[in-house]
Amino acid sequence: QVQLVESGGGLVQAGGSRRLSCAASGRTFSRYDMGWFRQAPGHKREFVAESRSSGSTDYADSVKGRFTISRDDAKNTVYLQMNSLKPEDTAVYYCAATRNFLGEYLHWGQGTQVTVSS
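RESULT FIELD:
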């Protein structure tokens, strides 16, 4: 079982920056695909970014050029650097780890709220 703990959420003004962290348990973190998702009120949870164990990354179109996902395997931590934040980025951000053969993430954190004020 992989446990995930997110941190770094809070209130930020539009145009500002915020860095989220997700600490994971487990001895084989470097083998985990790690993802960030978000859910805004009244909306479905959506993909934000992912960092694969292969080293490749992927982003949702809505955050490309503004958000950067990175990982520190020595610290079992994945980060989401969010720049040029917009009010529409307001959501609960969730960290996810490892995927099954269908590509679905198996483990989820409790989420951290990010609120962007205009």
